[in-house]
Design goal:
608 residues; Glutamyl-tRNA Synthetase, domain 3; 7-stranded mixed sheet; 15 helices; 29 strands; binds adenosine-5'-triphosphate; binds magnesium ion
């Protein structure tokens, strides 16, 4: 196969290495499987959070690095907690996170086998192999076409098959129908006591099971249990439940079923049905692994069987991560929704202006281990700043304006000055910013009684206006309450940036906008949602909510920001990174502060 984008062996490897990837690499080397196949299996009972992003990057990352496949699977076996809204949000979030991952594939030295590269219009398309077996909605490798949509698999699509497997276990004498109440079952299991129904015959069990399926019994009146052991030290092996009665309609299968499989039964078999080779999950499932293996073995399924591997979940400082707690914040309106930019959800992080590249870089950077611990949020923030520094368009905007009049600059005169769009990107070019007699500068950039080493504007002092002139503060105008309302300055008209005599230097440079040309924007300044690193630690996480996690102000922006695009990222010079919020309308700009330029929190911590 000749491919214009063929991967050459001397490219620097960009993929991380960790204990799971080492295992996969060994399997590839010994040709253990025809192809590596992973999955990401969320339950659609809430929106995905950044912990899920770690799992997505791991599962899709392995498929991508080893030329394999990764399925997105809705683990939808509990109809009462699940909803189509969550299915759709999960699909959108996964698509967003892995979209255009093909781009950095080209800088990657593949481990093991060469992947099967599917090309679309001569461009490699890595989505197709990742969704083999499911039709993708659209396929595209590059350009401005919409990102290819990943179609999910559903555990509920296997309900017929799972039912047949349960019947098979019953016939083999390896499962039975148990009529104990839920409380009695717990009690018996805790004490390692056998259920009185344990020795029912396969024929009798089958009859009960069929009647359960037909909806003859009420919720909780009986269950199917695997017949494994009554007193194993691993409680999960004490005849665990595999099917239960639930008279509930399902978001994907409707009213078809009155019985639903339990997670442990459905999960290993869904993996098997899809041909998963490496079933990767978080450490809390380690104790379930013997059950995972038992079910596959008990059914005598042809090899190869999938195998489960566990890694440490992501816990991040200054936030909570469980879906249940995030749902409380949404339901109690403590945030504006699942996609509130302060939420650790993928949709919140996206709305805040973080790019998928930054999240993927973060996921790669933190690595995969067997040890649970809290990741410092500064690691995430560093990945975000690094990414935004590379891609952001620089713009001038003033968040807390104070008026400046350049008294020696003619009223009505306007100069169009050159401003650099992105010093990190030589292709980003320049734009014009208008300069005039009346300007706004940041209130903070003026001090009437300046502290030591204050190199910005002060009475009688000089400062450079970025891309423009050096100005000198001649007079401070105050209102009757002593509040500064205007600064009268003179400009050194010989000092224009880039001009013939611009060599003169002063210590400070500040940003500004022309008052007459400026456009107003609503700016949402976000801070951490919680004030402590471990809001979960003492039970009531909500008492640690940061009351100042959102401040809304009106900023004065340079006119170029009128044309801000939702997909672009901006640095308001000297301030922070911003992106357009979906609440924006023609004539109404709304920006979210994604992140400040510097880590102000760690400074405060150091100060005590
Ligand atoms: P939560 O416990 O946060 O409510 P969950 O575990 O119930 O989430 P699932 O939908 O079951 O959410 O998770 C789907 C996959 O994501 C699972 O394989 C799970 O191991 C993984 N996952 C969930 N939370 C994290 C996390 N914090 N870090 C890494 N992986 C995670
Ligand atoms: Mg879970």
């Amino acid at each position: 196969m000749s491919n214009p984008n063929a991967i050459t062996p001397d490219v620097v490897p960009a993929a991380p290495s960790d204990f799971i990837r080492d295992i996969v690499a060994a399997h590839v080397a010994e040709n253990k499987y025809p192809r590596i196949h992973t999955r990401f299996p969320p339950e659609p009972n809430g929106y995905l959070h950044i912990g899920h992003a770690k799992s997505i990057c791991l599962n899709f990352g392995i498929a991508r690095e080893f030329g394999g496949i990764c399925n997105l699977r809705m683990d939808d076996t509990n109809p009462t907690k699940e909803d189509i809204e969550y299915v759709e949000s999960i699909q959108a979030d996964v698509n967003w996170l892995i979209s255009a991952w093909a781009d950095d594939q080209l800088g990657l030295k593949l481990k093991g086998k060469t992947p099967e590269i599917v090309t679309v219009n001569g461009q490699p398309d890595f989505y197709l192999p990742a969704v083999v077996g499911q039709p993708a909605k659209s396929t595209t490798g590059s350009g401005s076409a919409p990102a290819p949509a990943m179609e999910p698999f559903y555990a509920s699509d296997y309900f017929d098959q799972l039912y047949a497997y349960a019947v098979e276990l019953i016939k083999r004498g390896k499962a039975y129908v148990c009529d104990l109440t839920p409380e009695e079952t717990d009690e018996y299991r805790r004490h390692g006591k056998a259920s009185p129904f344990r020795d029912r015959s396969p024929a009798e069990n089958l009859d009960w099971f069929i009647r359960m399926k037909n909806g003859e019994f009420s919720d909780g009146s009986r269950v199917v249990r695997a017949k494994i052991t009554v007193d194993s030290p691993n409680i999960w092996l004490r005849d665990p439940l595999i099917y239960r009665i639930k008279h509930a309609d399902h978001h994907h299968t409707g009213a078809t079923w009155r019985i639903y499989p339990m997670y442990d039964f459905a999960h290993c078999l869904s993996d098997y049905i899809e041909g998963i080779t490496h079933s990767i999950c978080t450490l809390e499932f380690e104790v379930h692994r013997p059950l995972y293996d038992w079910i596959l073995e008990a059914l005598g399924l042809p090899r190869p069987l999938p195998h489960q591997y566990e890694f440490a979940r992501l816990s991040l400082g200054y936030t909570v991560m469980s879906k249940r707690k995030l749902m409380q914040l949404v339901d109690e309106k403590l945030v504006t929704g699942w996609d509130d930019p302060r939420m650790p959800t993928i949709s919140g992080i996206r709305r805040r202006g973080v790019t998928p590249e930054a999240l993927r870089k973060f996921a790669y950077h933190i690595g995969i281990t067997k040890y649970n611990g809290i990741t410092d949020v500064s690691v995430l923030e560093h990945a975000i700043r690094d990414d935004l520094n590379q891609r952001s368009l620089r713009r001038l905007a003033v968040l807390q304006p104070v008026k400046v009049i350049i008294t020696n600059y003619p009223a009505g005169q306007v100069e169009e000055l050159d401003a650099t769009n992105n010093p990190e990107d030589p292709h980003a070019g320049k734009r014009k910013v208008p300069f005039a007699r009346e300007l706004f500068i940041e209130r903070d950039d003026f001090a009437e009684v300046p502290p030591p080493k204050f190199f910005r504007l002060k009475p009688g002092g000089e400062v450079r206006l970025k891309y423009a002139y050096i100005i000198k503060c001649e007079e401070v105008i105050k209102d009757s309450s002593g509040h500064v309302v205007e600064l009268h300055c003179t400009a050194d008209l010989e000092s224009k940036t880039g001009g013939a005599t611009s060599a003169r230097k002063v210590k400070g440079t500040i940003h500004w906008v022309s008052a007459a040309h400026s456009v107003d924007a609503e700016v949402r300044l976000y801070d951490r949602l919680f004030t402590v690193a471990e809001p979960d630690a003492d039970g009531d996480f909500k008492q640690h909510l940061n009351p100042n996690s959102l401040e809304v102000i009106t900023a004065k922006c340079e006119p170029a920001l009128k044309d801000a695009l939702p997909e672009a990222r901006y640095q308001f010079e000297r301030l922070a990174y911003f992106s357009l919020d979906p609440d924006s309308r023609p004539g109404r700009l709304v920006f979210n502060r994604t992140i400040t330029l510097k880590d102000t929190w760690s400074k405060e911590v150091k100060k005590g």
